[in-house]
TrEMBL record:
This is Tail spike domain-containing protein. InterPro entries: Phage_tail_spike_N, Tail_dom. Residues 9-147 form the Tail spike domain. Signal peptide: none annotated.
Length: 148
């Protein structure tokens, strides 16, 4: 995304003159976890993303790490003011329905899981495939890796 596109949405890039760019391992992880790690290392920022279709009918996903999503319009919500009702929503964005578990020396569960190197949750049909990765480097047995 360009600076102008973010400014039009009332947002700005996370920037810091003292920011040092460095490399870090992204082995056995996914894009969202990498972005979250960058934000944790920066100490601030939010993930803004939008998905659309371009003129060639390709799906385009724009991702930006911004100071804050949206703008402050001065409205404050309190339980007794400006609210008609309140409800609880469950956030399942961090839920994993397909786990890629890795043991010692990149051991996987494929030998004890029908050739599949991943473990699917019973909720995969309900929530779709949400991949996650976990390092169990102290596990040396595929059976133990599958159980845990």
């Amino acid at each position: 995304m360009t600076e102008a596109e973010l400014t039009a949405k009332g947002m700005k890039w996370v920037a810091d003159d003292k920011l040092l760019i460095d490399f870090f391992s992204t082995d056995k992880t996914n894009l969202w976890d990498v972005i979250k790690t960058i934000i944790e290392n920066l100490g601030r920022g939010e993930i803004y993303h939008e998905t659309g279709i371009d003129s060639s009918n390709n799906v385009v996903c724009n991702i930006a790490i911004v100071e804050r999503i949206g703008t402050d319009n001065g409205v404050r919500l309190r339980l007794e003011k400006n609210m008609r009702s309140i409800s609880i929503e469950r956030n399942v964005s961090d839920m994993i329905t397909r786990l890629w578990a890795f043991g010692s020396d990149d051991l996987t569960v494929s030998s004890v899981n029908g050739g599949k190197a991943y473990i699917d949750s019973p909720n995969i049909e309900k929530y779709g495939v949400q991949e996650g990765y976990k390092d169990y480097s102290d596990y040396t047995s595929a059976e133990k890796l599958l159980r845990n």
